[in-house]
Write a structure and sequence with these properties.
Blueprint: H1 2-43, H2 46-52, H3 58-73, H4 75-81, H5 91-113, H6 116-121, H7 126-160, H8 179-184
Helix pairs in contact: 1-7, 3-5, 3-7, 5-7
Amino acid sequence: MQENTRTNSTAMACLTCTGITFVAGFVVMIVLYYVYAIMGLIETSHREVREICYTSNILIYVIVSLIIAPITSNAFKVRSADDSGEDRPYITEYFCLISQGVAFIIWKAIEVFNFPCVNRELRKTVLYKVALSIWIWNIIDTVLVLCILAGVIVVEIHKARPPAVVAEPIPQETAAPTTTQVDNV
C-alpha cells in the first residue's frame, strides 16, 4: 500500500515537472517569436524591402501576423465570456481560424513563390526567416484546427443521432417455421 502511494506521488511529481517545463518552453517560444520578429522588422526597413523587391509585401505580412496573433488567440475567451449558457461547440470560431490560416498561408506563398527577388535577395535577412517561421506555424496551426474541427463535427453528429433501437429476440413460439417443421407437415 505504501509502495503504491509512493509510486503515485512520484508520477504526480514527474507530471507536474513535465507540465511546468512545457508551459515554460511555450512562454519562451512566444517571447522569442516576438523578439525575432521585432528584430527582423528593425533590421530591414520598408524602404530597403522596396529597393530590393518593389512588389513584395513581406514586411506587411510580418506586421499583420504580429498584430493578428494575440487577437485570434483570444477568440475563444471572448465567446466564453458572453456565452448565454448554451452548450454549443465553437464551430464558427474554428471555421474563422481555418479561413484566416489559409489566407495567411496563401499570402506567404504568393510572397515567396511569385516574386523571385524575395527568394533570391531577402532570403539572407531575419525578416525572411521570421516570415518563413510564421508561414510554417500557420500551416501546422491550420492542420491542427482542421483536426479539432473534424473531431468536434463527428462528436456533434454522434450526439444528434437518435439512439439505436435494439430489436428484442423473437420468442420461439411465434417464430417462422424452420425447414424441418415445414417438411413434417
